[in-house]
Design goal:
The strands form two sheets. Strands 2-1-5-4-3-8-9 form a seven-stranded mixed beta sheet, with helices on one face. A two-stranded antiparallel ribbon has the order 6-7. It is built from nine helices and nine strands. By secondary structure, it is an alpha+beta fold. The longest helix has 23 residues, at about 30-55. Helix 1 crosses helix 2 (about 30-55) and helix 3 packs antiparallel against helix 4 (about 90-110). Helix 7 (about 190-200) links the parallel strand 4 (about 180-185) and strand 5 (about 205). Helices cover about 45% and strands about 15% of the residues. It has helices at about 1-25, 30-55, 65-85, 90-110, 160-170, 170-175, 190-200, 210-215, 265-270; strands spanning about 130, 135-140, 145-150, 180-185, 205, 220, 240, 240-245, 250-255. The radius of gyration is 22 Å and the shape is elongated.
Amino acid sequence: MKRWFISFYIAVLAGLVVTALYGLLLPVPWAAPAGMLLAAIAPLTFFTWLTGARPARTEAHPVIVSVLSGLGAVVTMMAVYRYGDQLQPWLIGAVVALAGWLTYVTWYSRQPLPVGAPVPGEALPGFSLVNADGEEVSTISLRGHNAVLLFYRGNWCPLCTAQIQELAAAWRKVARYDAKVWFISSQSQKHTREIARKLSIPAKFLRDPGNRVATQLGIAAPGATPAGLEALGYPTDAALPTVIVVDENGIIRFIEVASNYRLRPDPESYLKYLVPRDGD
């Protein structure tokens, strides 16, 4: 249901913005379309910023967006009160924009609680993944090394790609611990190769076909991909954004599963769990 909500809501916001701009040209009190424009353009600008600026994380509740969208709804409501019920359609549009935004913040952004996910102190369960060349890669290859495993939703997710780039920027610190880094998603081989080519670091970009490993670890997110992206070759299901740090004995030192898809751990918060190897 969430995948349909986000695609539909963004389309509705775009339609409301266009309608409001047209309304400013009509012989109606300007406050009605202007209020609807503000109510819709505030959240639409936020989504545009997410896509363009590609931050690795945001506030849990971007309050300024809620304030601006709410202000737009109030302006439209005042116009209806002053000039009459014939302006009700503008108020309905403003309320839809605001209600959709609050739904996005309080429902869509929140992720389901992981069921059966491993915890610090436990051994990382064994599993196999597939690299960009179609070869199988097993957790056996992590033995004797620190490792950082980052499960991401796909190239389509701007916060995911920003999180990957953020860890890539901290590569010198990772290298000091002789740590292996795996970036894992259920996306296609083509998309995995695309993101691997963008980063010149000795990390592995691995595929989890059918979300099997994410399901094994209890971090699967069925239907996480926004509707319509299937046309670009992305699978419907993904993993909850997750970072796992394991030591050279395969023991989990750190794990964080995002409870809100816009809240991701900073590399400094988990790289400190890398354990120096004997003799270092």
